[in-house]
């Protein structure tokens, strides 16, 4: 009996097949999930997912009915043009994952470098309109390209057997990254060719004979894709363990899933969306390139818009359905009763349009709150609900239609609050939102910084705003405007509009695919003008008929008062003008005398400024001289100690009469070598500090290394470690002045580390690299940073945080003068938080940006 029951259960499922277009990987995760999670069984289908083989032509399999469904790329349009009896149900990828790749070290950095190069593609890849259009857009002659048969081995690119290879963005870049190989990507969508890929398609006869089966398979597959993209790690594990004849590593499958999810929702598209105008554009490209054999009607290629608006099965559903129960949460949508106790509002008007298009009738059932609305679906009291977002919390229970309308969202505040044009300014302010899971999810997604306080309904939220318990209430403009008009007209007002409009969807029971498709087709058939007309109808606030005429008298009194003040003021001005004229004549005489001495005073001030600049320059020179003497002292200590020790040893051995000639000669050689080193040190310092105002060509890595060799000893004494990333870059400029800037910044870090830091953890990080046509020098330390209250002043002359005996405050000032005025660059500073060796640090970061050529 047990075996018999299993057999009967199996027989109750309709057998269908799906032919894949490539080997098993995350590219087909939605179908594996739908099968393993029982989504296909839920709609009475037993699906045979057939593996790919190079000898299988997928469109032929579906056209000849050897397979019920197939997965195809954008070349499916060519198959349709070749009279294949096929039709597309959806496109899972809104932009094709197909790309071209070259290695970074081959010199192929643009498509124009493809000339006379070898390109490895499959037959389909070379005919893909996205690749051909991308190459053609750069005026490349295809006769100058050598196409190779694809081996599907990335090592052919690595080993230079081909110069360019076609691949999927979701797979091959991962393999190259694992090998540590740099590469260039040529992506059609970056050149304006964002083509569909991975169509789910079937035979036209399958729709005519088994339309409900097609609808069920399509919806169950999309459900599988939604789950796969929401649970990428789980889907990857399933493929790794059960569908993995290629032995793809688990982390590679996860990488593929994340990349493909971006393409599935590219440009915020609905999952599986096919736009007729986009398909037409793809086919037009095929035509222009001479690839399409025959013209086709796009309506014949896309299932949703095929034949009439509704299919035979959908028409039977409409004829056999008395009414559709719609449960609503009135706090979200503006609904109210008129004198005849009938519903009015946006939702009602839109459902009237659906009724007009489909002949479906709707019963509106109001629920007290969102919880009751959701419960009504579970108890089958209602067939659909209206929702504000595709919330994951109800996604497993319901199917979502396309959005049917967008409603502006506004903020209601106290009457005295000024207009809010930046929603980010509401951070840390309590904002009321009705208890609607989908509405709250929508706000958290687009405005995560809002401090949301849930309220039972709009009236409760606005009362709290009026009592200062909330700063504002967020809701649709229709709901808030009606509530303010009726209950808070003199207390509250609309003070701002959110950037994102609220999209509204219908959520349908999982077991009612016919209703889902009827609603989607009805929504598509309603044009944007009709939708906007509904919104506009309910946005305006209907003010009360009674009018306070006393306001007119108050306004008139105000204007009379203002007019009297203006007339009196004009009379005073006439008198004052006469007095002013006399004073102006008198002041004019004084100004003439003042102008005579002005030139002399200006000359004196200029001379004083020159004297200040001379003194400042002298101070800089004295500071540089002191710096030089300090560095010389550091460099000379050990050599002088060697000379002193050696000479003392000679004297002691001479007095003890044990001095040997061999020791004497060796000691004298040591003294001589050390003296030569001291002489060379003096020469190095002389050359280093000698001013050079001529523009010369120099290598930044070379002069930095020389600079550090000279000043390094005092940093070592303080246990300061340098972590460097220096590129070898040639530039034209003032080398000696750039050296002085680097020294000043390093000294600033050294002083900060000596004062503020643990002696065992003193680091200076130096990064020097090229960006565009500029040299970038980035120096930062871990000394704790600079007080934010004074960080804007550190480039001022004579400003210093040190004791006056330790610094003059002109080093960083002169550094800014050198960089900005002499080298036409810029120098900035900020505090930076960073991690190094798994520890967190804070420090000041200097950024110097100078042009590579003056």
Automatic annotation (TrEMBL):
Q: Which InterPro entries match?
A: HATPase_C_sf (IPR036890), HATPase_dom (IPR003594), His_kinase_dom (IPR005467), HisK_dim/P_dom (IPR003661), HisK_dim/P_sf (IPR036097), NMT1/THI5 (IPR027939), Sig_transdc_His_kin-like_C (IPR004358), Solute-binding_3/MltF_N (IPR001638)
Q: Which UniProt keywords apply?
A: Coiled coil, Iron, Kinase, Membrane, Metal-binding, Phosphoprotein, Pyridoxal phosphate, Thiamine biosynthesis, Transferase, Transmembrane, Transmembrane helix
Short name of any one Pfam family annotated for the protein: HATPase_c
List the molecular function annotations (GO) for this entry. Answer: kinase activity
Looking at its record, which EC class is this enzyme?
transferase
User: Coiled-coil segments, which residues?
Assistant: 577-615
Residue ranges occupied by any Histidine kinase domain in the UniProt entry: 631-854
* PROSITE patterns named among the record's database cross-references: HIS_KIN (PS50109)
The record's section on SUPFAM superfamilies has:
ATPase domain of HSP90 chaperone/DNA topoisomerase II/histidine kinase (SSF55874), Homodimeric domain of signal transducing histidine kinase (SSF47384), Periplasmic binding protein-like II (SSF53850)
Give the E.C. number(s).
2.7.13.3
Q: In which pathway does it act?
A: Cofactor biosynthesis; thiamine diphosphate biosynthesis
> Which reaction(s) are listed as its catalytic activity?
N(6)-(pyridoxal phosphate)-L-lysyl-[4-amino-5-hydroxymethyl-2-methylpyrimidine phosphate synthase] + L-histidyl-[4-amino-5-hydroxymethyl-2-methylpyrimidine phosphate synthase] + 2 Fe(3+) + 4 H2O = L-lysyl-[4-amino-5-hydroxymethyl-2-methylpyrimidine phosphate synthase] + (2S)-2-amino-5-hydroxy-4-oxopentanoyl-[4-amino-5-hydroxymethyl-2-methylpyrimidine phosphate synthase] + 4-amino-2-methyl-5-(phosphooxymethyl)pyrimidine + 3-oxopropanoate + 2 Fe(2+) + 2 H(+); ATP + protein L-histidine = ADP + protein N-phospho-L-histidine
Record-annotated membrane-spanning stretches: 551-568
Give the multimer and partner information. Answer: Homodimer.
Similarity section: Belongs to the NMT1/THI5 family.
Q: What does this protein do?
A: Responsible for the formation of the pyrimidine heterocycle in the thiamine biosynthesis pathway. Catalyzes the formation of hydroxymethylpyrimidine phosphate (HMP-P) from histidine and pyridoxal phosphate (PLP). The protein uses PLP and the active site histidine to form HMP-P, generating an inactive enzyme. The enzyme can only undergo a single turnover, which suggests it is a suicide enzyme.
Q: Identify this protein by name.
A: histidine kinase
Which organism is this protein's natural source? Answer: Malaciobacter marinus
**What does the organism's lineage look like at the top?**
Bacteria, Pseudomonadati, Campylobacterota, Epsilonproteobacteria, Campylobacterales
């Amino acid at each position: 009996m047990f075996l018999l029951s299993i057999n009967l259960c199996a027989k109750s499922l309709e057998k269908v097949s799906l032919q894949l277009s490539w080997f098993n990987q995350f590219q087909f995760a939605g179908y594996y999930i739908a099968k393993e999670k029982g989504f296909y069984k839920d709609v009475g289908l037993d699906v045979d997912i057939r593996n790919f083989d190079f000898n299988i032509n997928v469109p032929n399999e579906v056209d000849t009915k050897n397979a019920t469904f197939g997965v195809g790329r954008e070349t499916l349009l060519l198959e349709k043009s070749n009279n294949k009896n096929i039709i597309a149900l959806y496109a899972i990828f809104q932009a094709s994952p197909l790309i071209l790749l070259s290695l970074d070290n081959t010199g192929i950095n643009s498509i124009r470098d493809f000339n006379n190069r070898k390109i490895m593609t499959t037959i389909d890849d070379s005919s893909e309109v996205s690749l051909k259009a991308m190459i053609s857009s750069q005026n490349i002659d295809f006769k100058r390209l050598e196409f190779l048969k694809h081996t599907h081995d990335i090592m052919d690119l690595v080993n230079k057997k081909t110069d360019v290879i076609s691949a999927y963005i979701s797979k091959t870049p991962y393999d190259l990254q694992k090998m540590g190989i740099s590469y260039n990507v040529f992506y059609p969508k970056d050149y304006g060719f964002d083509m569909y890929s991975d169509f789910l398609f079937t035979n036209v006869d399958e729709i005519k004979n088994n339309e409900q089966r097609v609808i069920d398979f399509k919806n169950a597959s999309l459900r599988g894709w939604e789950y796969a993209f929401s649970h990428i790690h789980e889907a990857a594990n399933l493929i790794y363990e059960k569908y993995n004849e290629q032995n793809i590593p688990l982390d590679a499958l996860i990488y593929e899933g994340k990349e493909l999810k971006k393409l599935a929702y590219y440009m915020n598209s609905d999952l599986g969306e096919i736009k007729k105008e986009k398909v037409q554009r793809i086919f037009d490209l095929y035509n222009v390139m001479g690839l399409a054999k025959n013209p086709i009607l796009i309506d014949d290629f896309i299932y949703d818009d095929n034949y009439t608006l509704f299919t035979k099965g959908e028409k039977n559903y409409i004829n056999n359905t008395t009414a559709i129960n719609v449960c609503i949460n009135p706090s979200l949508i503006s609904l109210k009763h008129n004198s005849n106790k009938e519903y009015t509002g946006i939702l009602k008007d839109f459902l009237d349009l659906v009724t007009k298009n489909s002949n479906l009738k709707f019963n509106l059932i109001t629920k007290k709150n969102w919880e009751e609305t959701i419960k009504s679906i579970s108890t089958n009291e209602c067939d659909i609900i209206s929702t504000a977002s595709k919330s994951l919390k109800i996604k497993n229970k319901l199917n979502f239609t396309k959005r049917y309308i967008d409603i502006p969202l506004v903020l209601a505040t106290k009457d005295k609050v000024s207009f809010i044009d930046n929603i980010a300014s509401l951070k840390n302010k309590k904002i009321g939102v009705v208890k609607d899971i989908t509405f709250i999810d929508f706000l958290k997604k687009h405005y995560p910084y809002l401090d949301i306080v849930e309220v039972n309904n709009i009236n409760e939220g606005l009362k709290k705003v009026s009592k200062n318990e909330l700063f504002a209430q967020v809701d649709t403009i229709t709901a808030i405007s009606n509530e303010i008009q009726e209950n808070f007209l003199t207390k509250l007002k609309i003070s701002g509009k959110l950037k994102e409009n609220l999209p509204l969807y219908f959520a349908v029971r999982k077991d009612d695919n016919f209703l889902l498709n009827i609603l989607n087709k009805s929504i598509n058939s309603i044009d944007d003008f009709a939708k906007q007309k509904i919104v506009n109808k309910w946005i305006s606030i209907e003010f009360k008929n009674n009018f306070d005429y006393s306001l007119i008298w108050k306004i008139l009194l105000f204007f009379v008062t203002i007019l009297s003040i203006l007339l009196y003021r004009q009379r005073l001005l006439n008198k004052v003008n006469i007095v002013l004229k006399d004073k102006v004549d008198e002041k004019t005489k004084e100004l003439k005398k003042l102008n005579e001495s002005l030139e002399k005073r200006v000359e004196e001030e200029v001379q004083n400024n020159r004297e200040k600049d001379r003194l400042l320059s002298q101070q800089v020179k004295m500071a540089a001289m002191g710096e030089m003497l300090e560095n010389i002292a550091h460099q000379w200590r050990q050599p002088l100690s060697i000379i002193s020790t050696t000479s003392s040893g000679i004297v002691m051995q001479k007095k003890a009469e044990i001095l040997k000639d061999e020791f004497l000669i060796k000691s004298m050689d040591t003294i001589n070598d050390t003296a030569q080193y001291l002489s060379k040190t003096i020469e190095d310092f002389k050359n280093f500090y000698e001013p050079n105002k001529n523009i010369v060509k120099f290598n930044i890595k070379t002069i930095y290394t020389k600079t550090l060799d000279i000043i390094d000893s005092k940093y070592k004494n303080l246990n300061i470690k340098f972590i460097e990333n220096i590129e070898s870059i040639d530039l034209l400029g003032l080398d000696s002045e750039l050296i002085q800037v680097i020294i000043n910044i390093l000294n600033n870090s050294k002083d900060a580390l000596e004062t503020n830091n643990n002696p065992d953890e003193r680091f200076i990080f130096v990064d020097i690299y090229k960006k565009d046509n500029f040299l970038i020098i980035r120096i930062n330390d871990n000394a704790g940073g600079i007080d934010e209250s004074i960080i804007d002043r550190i480039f001022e002359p004579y400003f210093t945080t040190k004791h006056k005996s330790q610094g003059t405050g002109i080093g960083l000032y002169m550094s800014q003068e050198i960089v900005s005025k002499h080298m036409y660059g810029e120098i900035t500073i900020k505090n930076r938080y960073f991690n190094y060796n798994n520890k967190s640090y804070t420090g000041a970061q200097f950024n110097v940006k100078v042009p590579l050529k003056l």
